[in-house]
Amino acid sequence: MSNRKRSTALALASALAGSAVLLAAPAAHAAVVDVAYDCKTPIGDKSAVSPIDIKAVKEGDAYKLTMSFQKGVSSSPIELGKGAMTPSAVIQVDGAEKASVPVSGPPNPEAAPANTPIKITDLSGTYTPKKSGKVTFTAGVLTIKAMGTTTTCTPGNSPKPSLELDVTAPAGAAKETQPSGGDTLPQTGPADSALALGTLGGTVLLSGAAGMLWLTRRGRRARS
Hints:
Elements: H1 3-24, E1 29-30, E2 33-41, E3 44-59, E4 62-69, E5 85-95, E6 99-104, E7 123-127, E8 133-146, E9 149-155, E10 163-167, H2 190-223
């Protein structure tokens, strides 16, 4: 085979291998989900709907989660100055395992006018799976702290997951700790005691039989 043909064959093989890797790689399923929040505010109960987007980026053994709000879900009767409001939330994990991942974000970068939905900054946090498999990420409770007050917003419409992803747990994360010296603990129950006694009894019986045999042979020699 000429060098040119060999190079062409290697390039084709590499391309096919790359395609196989891409086809084998798990694909994440993401969707922007409308979340209807019921909020308990210092000035009474409020409700609002915001489309929520959740993204995940693998970083080492963990996944960095980013939760984005496309609309504000709460407002203030007075203007909130720059940096006066701090948001945080919880992302619910379901599927291969159940978990709650806290996410938080920076304070509002600009002043929020009175009676205007407050723009919530992107919230981020880290999720380290303990089990490998398919998991979903769903928007949970949102908390907004501003000027010494706390507003708690709970999803009231049982929203669907915003992200579905195949995750890989770190090596050994799901393994149970095994005792040193073997995979199983030595048995010490009654059955083992009986077995031990049976073995001891067998030894005694064998010794007795040997003794009787020795005595019998000695007696025959003496008579002869």
